[in-house]
Amino acid sequence: MTRTVNINSNNLLTNGDFRIDPNATWTLYNSFINKSYCHNGSYSVEFLGGENNSYIQQSVAVTPLKSYLIRGAFAKLGSGEGAPVNILVQFYSKESKLLKIGLYASLFASDLEDVREGKWFPYWGYTIEAPENSSYALIIINKISSKNSVPVLGSNFAFKEAEL
């Protein structure tokens, strides 16, 4: 059976290409914008390597009972070992009550290749339907602490309504 997915073309994330000051649109922790390594015209966010936990997050308005596509591209900076990355989408009510985890995905360190070779790992994932009383989603992209790992790059992020 073939399943068709219709995806709204509007990116609900603000500044998913990191072209404007990310501090106005994202919360960044142990991460910064890297303009040297781009993916499809988007700057990248660099997550610190090693034992540092690094993440970015952003809240976006959602429509109840809709599913969402989240996508991005990932690479490591250097020939050493990369680090695992978790991608998390949480749905909240207007009262900021956590309703449901809409997506929890993990990329393994072995998924990432050296950006200096021009290689990026494309990630596409779909959430469950947002609960009936959802108001917003919190999107968290988290590079996990990993001893001796090289920095990880993320780029070209989008969060779009999808009809499954």
Automatic annotation (TrEMBL):
Lineage: Bacteria, Bacillati, Bacillota, Clostridia, Peptostreptococcales
Cited Gene3D superfamilies: Galactose-binding domain-like
Organism: Alkaliphilus pronyensis
UniProt protein name: NTTRR-F1 domain
NCBIfam families: NTTRR-F1
